[in-house]
From TrEMBL:
It comes from the Eukaryota. One of its GO terms (biological process) is carboxylic acid metabolic process. Coiled coil: none annotated. Keywords: Decarboxylase, Lyase, Pyridoxal phosphate. Belongs to the group II decarboxylase family. This is Uncharacterized protein. Gene3D superfamilies: Aspartate Aminotransferase, domain 1 (3.90.1150.10), dopa decarboxylase, N-terminal domain (1.20.1340.10), Type I PLP-dependent aspartate aminotransferase-like (Major domain) (3.40.640.10). SUPFAM superfamilies: PLP-dependent transferases. Its cofactor is pyridoxal 5'-phosphate. GO terms for molecular function: carboxy-lyase activity; pyridoxal phosphate binding. InterPro entries: Aromatic_deC, PyrdxlP-dep_de-COase, PyrdxlP-dep_Trfase, PyrdxlP-dep_Trfase_major, PyrdxlP-dep_Trfase_small, Pyridoxal-P_BS. The modification N6-(pyridoxal phosphate)lysine is found at K395.
Length: 598
């Protein structure tokens, strides 16, 4: 570090390609980097050296010069001069160089979106970075959720089409005050609603890098394609899927899109034959949406009954499989409602008996990534035998939204489903950015041509934290769910558990006693619905609704949250009891209080 005066200092840095860079810092903020390769050297005025080598010598001399001998002049440029011993070192000369501080002015009429003052952008960038890191660090200090004030809703909705631009500082200020505080809250430690992911600090930084590169990852000669191929191969390895070129995969926005892809590939396989979808009522609605989109009739969806553990009943399935048609059999590696895991090995066995007619698909949105844990992995045995697995990385793997994945056992079939006849504007060439030889085009494996780069955030997340740490977090979440279920059982006068906890989901409700009449159940449903919204609206925690059986309203906690601690469970149940007491004291629910005291 080289202080020049009270405002500026220089730092000499060797970068990874061994190039010497001079960094100029102003009040601690890096404002210029001058790379001493030949091109950049011309941006630097130096009077006594003509080549980069000479300049390197000069810099070394600078380092050896005592600070008191350095003269710094700042006007439009920063001029730094200092005496050095020269040649045989028996005489001194004054060397100086100038770093331009003037902003580049565009003399032509051409415009771009780049700032006229890069330093100003840098300052804004530093401010945003500081705010975002504080935002993540302090998340526990905020309520889980707070309602969006009407004034802010109106301000957002009334905003005029911006014909003229404005200062990015002002625009950011609006984001900071109007958007950031009013999110659904899924990065909060006490958020356990639906199946949300928490993201991570590294994931957030990766998103910034991805946005800066803004590279379009359909294919071509670029590192992001290799990165995606690599992360897909890691995911196959993790799951135990064939990890070679015979199988295929692609990162997509989520399991919903992954399911559409899986169903489209299966339909391609069975082309002119009738394909029936077999799933349970507990299967996620994305299966039905994919079927609708692909024109599969309602009559061709068969709902198979479940057993006591809410798993697909294998005998019932075998009994309803039509031997004259093809089948797309859906297994769940964690159902959305209760986290039940189907007997995936049993399903794989059934499909293996008629491999030409039955396709084994697994919805692993929640559970597939739990293969990170050695302890949890056996729950999913058989997953690796699926013909296709749709799963999410933005849920339990904490990759920032959006990021899901589809893996397909028959890679060639997968490609043939999506590949298009060549069109002139996408012709691959003998070289250049889109060479025909040896390149992998992800647009041949999914719905999109233009697609963003998801691999950087996955790659950075996996490399930074490592699979074992994720495995431990998932075990921690499962243990927290079991602990909460235990707390519910301990408070059996006030709560009841509504489903067995097999993974990270707890379904429960507040009771005044075991209800035994329909009316009472309806009243309890109403009570629990109010309890749920009050908990949410007070920012205590977030759990979400689920209906067990035909008419039992449950509060549902799903813990896919690396920030949650065991003590949050104690705090949550206590606060829930307080809110329930408050509710019971209202006229509306007085009747329940009476029943409870019977
Ligand atoms: C079991 C299951 N399958 C599929 C999905 C849909 O996934 P996505 O929202 O990523 O499209 C979800 C979402 O929560 C889910 O829980």
């Amino acid at each position: 570090m080289y202080p020049l005066n009270d405002k500026y200092y220089l730092q000499l840095v060797r970068d990874s390609s061994e190039c010497l860079n001079i960094e100029l810092h102003h009040h601690g903020i890096l404002i210029r980097i001058v790379s001493l390769n030949n091109d950049h050297c011309s941006t630097l005025t130096h009077r006594l050296c003509e080549t980069v080598d000479e300049f390197n010598v000069l810099i070394i001399d600078l380092l050896e010069t005592s600070i008191s001998n350095i003269r710094v002049t700042v006007d439009e440029n920063l001029e730094i001069s200092f005496p050095v011993r020269f040649g045989s070192r028996n005489y001194e000369k004054l060397w100086s160089f100038i770093i331009e501080l003037r902003l580049e002015t565009n003399t032509a009429d051409e415009i771009s979106l780049d700032p006229s003052d890069w330093n100003d952008l840098r300052l804004l960038g530093h401010k945003i970075m500081d705010n975002m890191i504080d935002y993540m660090r302090d998340v526990r200090l905020r309520p889980t959720w707070r309602p969006l004030p009407l004034t802010i809703k109106e301000t957002i909705l009334n905003g005029d089409l911006p014909l003229q631009g404005q200062s990015p500082w002002q625009v950011y200020d609006e984001v900071f005050t109007m958007i950031l505080p009013y999110v659904i809250g899924n990065i909060h430690p006490l958020f356990w609603g639906h199946v949300y992911g928490t993201g991570s600090t590294i994931g957030a930084l990766a998103e910034f890098i991805t946005g800066t590169m803004n590279t379009m990852s359909w294919g071509g000669q670029q590192a992001s394609i290799y990165l995606e191929r690599k992360v897909l191969s890691w995911l196959k390895q993790l799951i135990g899927f064939p990890n070679d070129e015979t199988s295929s995969g692609i990162l997509v926005s989520g399991t919903s899109v992954a399911t559409i892809i899986a169903l489209a590939v299966a339909r391609k396989k069975f082309h002119e034959r009738t394909m029936i979808i077999y799933c349970t009522k507990d299967a996620h609605s994305c299966i039905i949406r994919a079927a609708n989109l692909l024109g599969i009739n309602k009559e061709n969806i068969v709902y198979v009954s479940t057993n006591e553990q809410r798993q697909i009943d294998l005998q019932a399935l075998e009994a309803c499989i039509d031997p004259n048609t093809c089948g797309f059999i859906v297994g769940s590696a964690g159902t959305v409602g209760t986290g039940a895991i189907d007997d995936l090995q049993g399903l794989a066995d059934i499909c293996a008996r008629r491999p030409n007619d039955l396709w084994f698909h697994v919805d692993g949105a929640i559970g597939a990534v739990a293969c990170c844990s050695r302890r949890l992995r056996p729950l999913f045995t058989g997953l690796e035998r699926a013909d296709s697995i749709a799963f999410d990385l933005h849920k339990w793997l904490s990759v920032p939204y959006e990021c899901g994945c589809i893996l397909v056992r028959d890679g060639e079939l997968h490609r043939s489903t999506f590949v298009q006849p060549t069109v002139s504007y996408l012709t691959l060439m003998d070289g250049g950015i889109t060479p025909s030889e040896g390149e992998h085009f992800f647009s041949d494996y999914g719905l999109e041509l233009s697609r963003n780069t998801k691999a950087v955030k996955v790659w950075m997340t996996l490399k930074t934290y490592g699979i074992e740490r994720f495995g431990r977090i998932m075990e921690q979440n499962v243990d927290q769910a079991l602990y909460f279920a235990h707390l519910i059982e301990q408070h059996s006068n006030q709560f009841e558990l509504l489903a067995k906890v097999t993974l990270n989901i707890v379904c429960f409700r507040y009771i005044v006693r075991q209800s035994n009449t329909i009316d009472e159940n309806d009243m309890l449903n109403k009570f629990n619905k109010r309890l749920l919204t009050m908990i949410q609206e007070r920012g205590i925690a977030i759990v979400s609704p689920f209906v067990i059986g035909t008419n039992t309203f449950a509060l549902r906690m799903c813990i896919t949250n690396h920030r949650t601690r065991l003590t949050d469970m104690d705090k949550f149940i206590e606060q829930m009891i307080q809110v329930a007491r408050e509710l019971l004291s209202t006229d509306e629910f007085a009747i329940l209080k009476t029943i409870g005291s019977v």
